[in-house]
Amino acid sequence: MSGATAERLVPFHEAVGQIRDGDLLLYRGRGPIAWAGRGRHVHAAMLAWWDDDLLVLEVHPRYGGRAVTLASQMHLWPGRLEVFAADFEGRWPEWHPRGAVRMMRRLCGMAYGWKSVLWVAMRHLPILRWVLRPELDDQLLGPWPPFCSQACVVATRLGGGVDPVPHLADRFTEPADLARSPFYSYRFTLGAPPSEMF
Questions:
Q1: Which of 166, 169, 139, 170 minimizes the C-alpha distance to 153?
Q2: How much is the pLDDT for 130?
Q3: Is 86 helix (H, G, I), strand (E, B) or coil?
Q4: Where are the alpha helices (DSSP H) in 56-188?
Q5: How far apart are CA 180 and CA 90, in angstroms?
Q6: Is residue 111 within 8 Å of 64, Cβ to Cβ?
């Protein structure tokens, strides 16, 4: 969400009908990712439907790759979950949301890429930032498992057919880079959590 975009708080029961497979969920907060990164988001995940349940597909720092309900995340992050629609205006005819979701599901059970995060954070240090050139090659996946936003961009590019951040290598993509991507449109921030999770 750009600084010029006003926050739009939407209750869960109104929001769920507007969410589609492959939409992006960004977690707003404080922490090392936001502090060392380029924005106010600390985590990224992909949204997907499984029958009537809306799931969050993510690579979590504590649990690795997993799928959890959106309702459970709302209880943990009330008022701090921002939904970004993938290709909201239909400008990418090659976009294949089911393929992106399928690839993201395949990351379930994978470890979190702590070494990858450390490498990205080190590139923000003043001396390294001035010396090292930005990496643009998506083919260089790196030797370590992905972190949250890297997983989202890899699944979107390889499974969904669209590179949401074409001028930056997947392994250096941060949640804030996804928030600024023209492929994603900020829709709303999830408001009050549902009273019943099941």
A1: 170
A2: 44
A3: strand
A4: 70-76, 97-105, 114-122, 126-131, 148-154, 175-180
A5: 17
A6: yes
Phi/psi for 178 (5° steps) reads -65, -40
Instruction: Tell me the pLDDT tens digit for each residue of 88-124.
Output: 999 999 999 999 999 999 999 999 876 655 655 555 4
Strand, coil or helix: 71? helix
CA distances from 16 to 12, 100, 197 (A): 6, 19, 13
**Residue with tokens 């977690």, as numbered in its chain:** 27
pLDDT at 114: 67
At 48, the amino acid letter reads A
DSSP state at residue 110: P
